[in-house]
Amino acid sequence: MFTPSPNIDRVLADAIKVDLVGAGRTIIGNAADVWPNDTGHYDQSLRVKVDERGVVVQSDDPAGHIIEWGSARHQPQAPLRTAAAEAGRFEPK
Amino acid sequence: MSAELVVLPDWLAAMSEWLRDQSELTDLIDQRIYTELPPSKTFPLARIAHITDPPITGPAHWAVDATFQLDVWGGPKAITWTIAETARALITQRFSGHAWDLTAGRVVAGRVRAGGIRRTTDAVTTAGTDADNSAETASARPRARFDFAVVLHP
Lengths: 93, 154
Known about the structure:
The complex is a heterodimer. By secondary structure, chain A is of the alpha+beta class. Chain A has helices at about 10-35, 40-45, 65-70, 80-85, and strands at about 45-50, 55-60. The two termini of chain B are about 25 Å apart. In chain B, strands 1, 2, 3, 4, 5, 6, 7 and 8 form an 8-stranded mixed sheet that branches.
């Protein structure tokens, strides 16, 4: 009988990390297409990071949260969520 | 032989119409559920945005996995939670798994996956009237938002 090790979740996370990073790179490529901008600053702000959160895609643009989530003055453009949905099944958290 | 062209409904119009039809929500916010915020604002109010709707039925243009974002602005802060959570409860429990005949079109909703409600306060001030006292104020508004995904087809 197979008995999973106590750290099975970490083992599985490590096993798929490379593929997740690849998926992240696809997402940031798509996100750059979603948000049209003349300066290219937003495109350059997109990162795939591997840290304590796991594999994440983020923007370091100071206006990134407004671009993604909008405000009372701006509609959400949501380039990251749009790109994630286009890359595969998107699950809101 | 020509096949009938399948044109999908305006999901955003359908979703906003459905929300305005729910008495539990309009009891809290009247009809102030918008797709674009009006120049003259009465708070609390809500805005629904349609993020994307990638098709999921391949060559058959029929079903999509649509993502929406709902924002609620107050004040007061507590009411933003109540309105957002009421909307989330309605969408996940009543909208999901049913067919709806709306002015925007017939919409069939599959399973809904809703995200967490994020509560913040806007960094900028927004002018508007508070519904409970008719006072015109400019302040940093409390905000509650969540996004949700739902499979939709006509």
